[in-house]
What we know:
There is one protein chain. Helices cover about 30% and strands about 20% of the residues. The protein is of the alpha+beta class. The protein has one domain: 4-Layer Sandwich (Chorismate synthase, AroC fold). A hairpin with a 6-residue loop joins strand 16 and strand 17. The longest helix has 24 residues, at about 340-365. The mean pLDDT is about 90.
Amino acid sequence: MPTLDYQTAGESHGPGLITIVTGMPAGVPLDEGLINAELSRRQGGYGRGGRQRIETDVVEFLSGVRLGMTLGSPIAMRVANRDSRMDDVERTPPVYRPRPGHADLAGSLKWLTTDCRGTLERASARETAARVAAGALARGLLSLFGIEIFGFVRSVGTERTDVVVTADNWRELKLLREASETYCPDADATRRQVEVIRRAKVEKDTAGGLCEAHVFGVPPGLGSCVDWRLKIDARLAYAVMSIQAFKSVEIGLGRRVSELPGSAVHDPIRYDPKRADGSTLGFVRDSNNAGGIEGGMTNGQPVVVTGAMKPISTLLRGMPSVDLNTKEAQQSDYERSDVCAVSAASVVMENVVAFEIARAMLDKTGGDSLAEMQAHHDVSMQLARILPLDPPIMTIAGD
């Protein structure tokens, strides 16, 4: 059975970023416009740095695609770096004073060098352009199954929106997000968030925030309860936590489940035969505190993921550090950076979530071609609709 996966390579000031996606079935229409639109969104948002005025990210397909369709072979994508100066020592000099909060010190100790340059170039969030390309490619596959993803900025600093996202209003909220400088679907909250970022810039500081993603139309049964490595919530947490500067991931209510009694946490189950033809198979809930996942598997409700991004580690005013050669106290080095990249991070998170959902879809349905995958999916959903089966099939109970 094919397994959807991807790898990225390239330094932030190298010639370009490469993404290789394996396991994508043959016959999936290529939505290059969607991929480039997501790459463009990743470069936007109030608080971004000067590099976004240099780069214009577009994807170039090197293999795995013919006549606008996937071939079933590995798909290689390239996003070029216009600002390519990795071997120009004058423009990218050695960095001996590590920045607190960044990979500089840990990488130097790992690779036994006092020059942080190699570490910071590879650890740079510039790498996320490659991950957005992979996720946007996967979204093209998901859309064929009626699965849609909506991501946005919930908060910057302490300024947040309390907007409620539903299957009925998310498209309207998407329009509001597109009009927002911070990618927040709330005009009042956007104004407050812009002020937080503006104040941080004046003070030569940085700001973080919360990103949120909702996935609609997800069928039940993605993921598994029989192997901890296959739990969909664990895989989503792994993917989101691996985004640069993310420090926590929550599903549904997240940490708030620890504060409430079970009766206020768990989502009552009801059956509505009028909705049996939809992705929920007719099983509806009064709430979605579980974030669409129970026992490591999707339950047919929207999947809801929240990620917390810390403030950018590079401060214009620097922070106390040391010179790795002399061990003397110094202020940390400054590398061109953003004041706030939460908006961009919300795009990255939206797309890595999409990739994990697509991976789980392919794990469940299998298939070397899109037609085979669709047939398996249709049969699986139809069998679930006619439960109980005769004869019954032995099942493994989840938690």
